[in-house]
Write the structure tokens for this entry.
Amino acid sequence: MKRWERYSMESLARGEVDPWGKLFISHRGQCHQEHIRLLHAGVDTVRQLFRGLPYLPLFDKIISVYQEGRGATVDLWGHTWAVAAGSEGSGFRYRLQNNDLGVIVFLKARHTKVDQVGTHIKIELSPHFIQERTPEKCESFMLLIATGLLDHLEFAGCAVHLALDVQGWQPPPDFVDRFVTRSKKMVRIDGIADMSFDHGSIATTYGRGETYMFGTAGALQCALYNKTLEAHHRDKLHFWEGLWQQAADDDPSVPAYDPDEDVWRIEMRFHQSVLREFAQGIPCNVDTGEVLDDSHGFQRFTDVVPHLTGLWRSALQSYRLDACRGLIDPAWQRFQDDARFYAPAPDFLYKRARKAPGLGNEKNVCLAFGNLISIYARQGFGTHQAIDYLKQSGMWDDLEHYYRRRGVSGSAFRQLVEQKLIERRLLGKAA
């Protein structure tokens, strides 16, 4: 799979690529990604499984409260919990739920006797619980609950949902046609008008392309949806806007979030069985190169945390939007490269400041222009195409101001570009 070369104004002046640059160039052309803003990358859901022998006095107390009927509650671990039946798909008979806290505890596995060791506890953490705590504190709270409910306690696997919220991008009209998955066939629903399915692979579209979903919940699942509409529907917009408003663009003083524009979410949902397979494949930490010990198999949330960014990048390769055959879509490449989970962003993402056009940066403008022309020559761009791409490169104002001050007209500038392209092709200076 070919990828786009990435550049910034600073890297062009040095004649180098910039892995974080927003100018993308390939044989298919050039595009500038400054209009796309990454607002939030984080863990949306954690589901932790625990194996052990049920502590029957507490189990019996919870079941007794459940039998009181609808609206029954119980006070445990410093919080009040609603006691209800577990859903059929959860695999558990009962659940304790506290939406204000953002935690659900499922207990008593349906297919294991209560007097036998088994996976009797599953704890699910919501986004607002996760955002307010470190991974270690999240795990400590889950362990507090599990130790009260089980004897001979063991961590039995973890599932996580990773989410990236963006503005300035939404799935294009031909999204499904260009989207690559390992599924041979997919389900698609357009306005609930038609439906088909095969081999347990799913791709759904709900009303005007507001939601796309690929894969099954028991494997690696990909979902793309309008997060603004979803947050409105769930009455959670205030919480998410609080997170999005913290995002900054290149200039930290300028907020990246625009409340008048919809936010789209790309979400990758890793079932515990998928994480177990990743652990057996011995992945490496994308930053430190640390090799994961495959003996633990991602059994607990804190095992997974150092590897979330690598897992995200792998998932966006399995579910991938292509620009054309053999070339990844530039926006998808940026989502894959730039999202960071529990890792600080590089300093330069927050320290860039735009200079006034052509003031104090003439040398950089000349160097960047020359190196960009070399790149265009290497990619085989013509004069007209090169000038159009220069206008979209993010450096056009600087370049125009520089040559205008030197009395170079539009036609003369066109001849200059044409001459430089020819020189680089004929004299072998194309980068």
